[in-house]
């Protein structure tokens, strides 16, 4: 599903960022832009609203809407490696490549099949300012907002992470940070997801989503696509290692697994030299 307008400039931003090894940079052109004060206000209001009865009611509605929508959107999504989740118990952190505003729905149906009824999503604070039905979901679903504030990250943010894990829920954290629209390749991760897994002594559920082009057009720029979710080996922290040692090792293993999954799925070695085919479904000029 294509959300937003033309992606021509986004693809050019991806090409430039890849050429300059800026794999975690923002490339989208339509994301909300907020000042530091506005960001703080958005997050504060969101967290305060969670204590109200109306929020709890709307949270149930939003979760039901997202669960139903996830099943509809992924009716033809394949899932491989579900057996790797057979022995999971308790809270987990899920990592996956981030290439579409709705790619979390593929993670959601996967974790649902593994027995997890709720999937929390770590999301940029600016997403709370989105409008329409996406804005409703971002402000009422199971969202843990990420804000660039050392005080917030070491306080309320860590507490929200720990609380969801303690209650046995799954948390999706995109280690690539920013979304690169329909970009097929796994990008080098940042350490945050693995730090929180190591600190809370919970496993990483390692996922990679393969994107296959279909013949039917989605719009003038893109063909429709189909997802194949690859559930990779679960990564566990070593109780004899420090949080830093564990987070570095878990990050390294997760990236290596995603690279191997990419190479198996697409039948070629990973190279970050930009090619038209890096963007799934893109109807490049002249095609």
Task: Break the fold down into its secondary structure elements and pairings.
Layout: H1 8-19, H2 36-49, H3 53-73, E1 78-80, E2 92-95, H4 104-113, E3 119-124, H5 132-140, E4 143-146, H6 150-166, E5 170-172, H7 192-200, E6 204-217, E7 223-231, H8 243-266
Parallel strand pairs: 1-7, 2-5, 2-6, 3-4, 3-5
Antiparallel strand pairs: 6-7
Helix pairs in contact: 3-4, 7-8
Q: How does the overall form come out from the CA principal axes? A: globular
State the separation between the terminal residues, measured CA to CA: 21 Å
Number of helices: 8
Strand content: 5-15%
Structural class of the secondary elements? Answer: alpha/beta
Radius of gyration: 18 Å
Would you list the SSEs in sequence order as H and E?
HHHEEHEHEHEHEEH
Tell me, rounded to a whole number, the average pLDDT.
93
**Helical residue percent band:** 40-55%
Number of E-type strands: 7
Walk across the major sheet and give the strand order: 1-7-6-2-5-3-4
Described by strand count, sense and barrel closure, the largest sheet is: 7 strands, mixed
Catalogue the unreliable spans: none
Short overview:
This protein has helices at about 10-20, 35-50, 55-75, 105-115, 130-140, 150-165, 190-200, 245-265; strands spanning about 80, 90-95, 120-125, 145, 170, 205-215, 225-230.
Describe this structure in words.
By secondary structure, this protein is α/β, with parallel strands linked by helices. It has eight helices and seven strands. Strands 1-7-6-2-5-3-4 form a seven-stranded mixed β-sheet, sandwiched between helices. Helix 7 packs across helix 8. The radius of gyration is 18 Å and the shape is globular. The two termini are 21 Å apart.
């Amino acid at each position: 599903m294509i959300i937003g307008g033309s992606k021509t400039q986004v693809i050019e931003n991806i090409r430039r960022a890849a050429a300059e090894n800026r794999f975690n940079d923002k490339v989208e052109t339509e994301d909300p832009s907020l000042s530091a004060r506005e960001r703080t206000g958005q997050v504060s209001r969101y967290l305060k609203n969670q204590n109200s009865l109306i929020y709890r009611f709307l949270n149930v509605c939003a979760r039901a809407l997202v669960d139903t929508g996830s099943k509809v959107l992924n009716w033809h999504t394949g899932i491989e490696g579900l057996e790797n989740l057979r022995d999971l118990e308790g809270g987990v952190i899920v990592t996956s490549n981030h290439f579409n505003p709705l790619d979390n729905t593929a993670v959601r149906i996967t974790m649902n099949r593994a027995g997890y009824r709720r999937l929390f999503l770590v999301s940029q604070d600016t997403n709370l300012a989105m409008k329409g039905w996406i804005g409703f979901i971002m402000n009422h679903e199971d969202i843990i907002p990420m804000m660039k504030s050392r005080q917030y990250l070491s306080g309320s943010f860590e507490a929200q992470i720990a609380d969801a894990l303690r209650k046995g829920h799954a948390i999706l954290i995109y280690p690539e940070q920013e979304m690169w629209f329909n970009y097929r390749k796994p990008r080098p991760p940042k350490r945050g997801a693995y730090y929180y897994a190591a600190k809370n002594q919970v496993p990483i559920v390692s996922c990679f989503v393969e994107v296959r082009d279909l013949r039917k057009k989605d719009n003038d720029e893109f063909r429709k696509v189909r997802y194949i979710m690859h559930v990779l080996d679960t990564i566990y922290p070593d109780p004899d290692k420090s949080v830093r040692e564990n987070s570095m090792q878990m990050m390294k293993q997760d990236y290596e697994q995603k690279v191997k999954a990419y190479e198996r799925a697409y039948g070629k070695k990973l190279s970050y030299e930009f090619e038209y085919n890096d963007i799934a479904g893109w109807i490049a000029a002249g095609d």
